[in-house]
Amino acid sequence: MKLDVIKLDGTSAGTLDLDEALFGLEPRADILHRVVRWQRNNAQAGTHKVKTRSEVSYSTKKIYRQKGTGGARHGARSAPIFRGGGVYKGPVVRSHGHDLTKKFRKLGLCHALSAKAKAGELVIIEDVNTDGKTSALAKAVKNLGWKRALIIDGASVNEDFLKASRNIEGLDILPTMGANVFDILKRDTLVITKSGIEALEARLK
After folding, report:
1. Among 75, 74, 81, 77, which Cα is nearest to 58's?
2. Per-residue pLDDT for 37 more than 90?
3. Are 98 and 41 spatial neighbours (Cβ–Cβ below 8 Å)?
């Protein structure tokens, strides 16, 4: 498939042939869902923790006699039924991550790219060379109509462009190796440089 290439000032820079295996697939929601779920679960800290009955600071002495009180039979103040007692089957520190094969993760990224291409939310720009001025870049972004955009550059991100884009709301930039399904789907517009296209094709072939 062919897509028009533009410059940062909005002028045309020709066309580019995109690989159908990366940008021409029919997007499948089930594949995208599994990859996003794998990403978000791996990112979850899992540091939640409560104290169990054996961890709360209470004496293990029997709190009152077994019989004759007219109440329930209890052995210690640390029982979950009491205020301040241990929590029964509460959360513990653990990893929420699970495995997903490299082949499936790669497939998910291809479907995310194809989803953006099919929705008309994919933009190819020649490069992200800039003078490092935030005001000039902000004006260019506004003229292009990018409100919530993710820009994917080549193997490394242009330093001047990175500095200029830091204070622009809704604009994020990643190197090719940082491209992931969650970030691509979260933004309204996906912008990829020509060098980024080449690096993605080399990565996903």
Report:
1. 77
2. yes
3. yes
Residue 192 pLDDT: 94
pLDDT band at residue 34 under the 50/70/90 scheme? very high
Q: How far apart are CA 40 and CA 110, in angstroms?
A: 18
Q: Residues near 54 by Cβ (< 8 Å), separated by ≥ 6? A: 78, 86
Domains of the chain from N-terminus onward: 2-41+98-204 (3.40.1370.10), 50-90 (no CATH)
C-beta separation of 84 from 56 below 8 A: yes
Helix (H, G, I), strand (E, B) or coil at 157: coil
The two three-digit tokens of residue 70, written as one number = 């007219």
Q: What is the pLDDT of residues 108-167, one digit of tens each?
A: 999 999 999 999 999 999 988 887 789 989 999 999 999 999 999 988 888 888 888 988
pTM of the model: 0.82
Following CA atoms 8, 10, 11, 14 in sequence, which dihedral angle do they give, to the nearest 10 degrees?
A: 80
Measuring CA to CA, which residue among 163, 157, 165, 174 is closest to residue 138?
165
The gap from C-alpha 154 to its chain's centroid, in whole angstroms, comes to 19
